[in-house]
Fold:
Amino acid sequence: MRIDLEKPTVSVVVPTCNSGKTLSECLRSVCNQSYPYHETIIVDSFSHDNTVNMAKDSGAIIIQRKCNPAAARNAGVANSAGQYVLFLDSDQVLSTSVIEECVKSADDDVGMVKIPEVFVGKGFWSHCSAVWKNSYGKVERAYWHRQNIARGEPRFFVKEHIVRAGMFNDKLLWGEDYDLYERMNEMKIKEATCESKLYHLEPASIGKILLKLLRYGKSLQDFRQDSGNRLFILLLNHSLLTLTMVAKDYRKSPAIIVGCAILLFLKTYYLTIGLLVGLMNVKSKE
Structure:
């Protein structure tokens, strides 16, 4: 692959909104990448904390726009200079060779690359959430050949494929990455998985976890209109397999099993409440 040293080949796009507690570690991991030819684009929803100052200190390009994460990612792509795009959340941390491995994979005619994700939690509920999500990923790796489970989405893309696929659906607050992935699969875009990992910092309190789920729930109706009921069946099967795996792997830690079961119940409850609120909002606009 020929590299123009004056231009970045990878654009790292990070949506932010009052992300000061985690952003510095995220940006530090981007700056410390073994692959140097990249730029960082922060699309900030007018944060009130020190998010923007952190972004400035890191040398990132800053775009301020009041929008949801899907629209923020689209804005990042529209303003990017790289031929590849890596989408990160502000609470994610890269190991040092992620970008280098992804570029090497994409150079082999691959259009999108999955990055193994490890969830990290501090405190009981945060740890239970991390256990659940790590087990969720373990189920995917163990049962990848099945057609009745949800699959993790790539984060690294050849930019032209994202544009051809129509970008992210900015109506969605949840599932926009899966929605894009499904469209790219329909286009027969080849995918790969790198070995290096990224680490996802779980919210410290159960309240923050549930507020996020409530917000996602409000977008479920829009997602359902685009994807039908297929994803909900996949998520249900995947969740049941995950609960079984947690019970098996943590049989000597019953508190973790109970905590994960409670979180699953609360997630279902809050997503349902969010869905109902979203439906009420739609009806009130009609």
Observations:
- The longest helix spans residues 254-285.
- DSSP finds eleven helices and ten strands in the chain.
- The two ends are 53 Å apart (CA to CA).
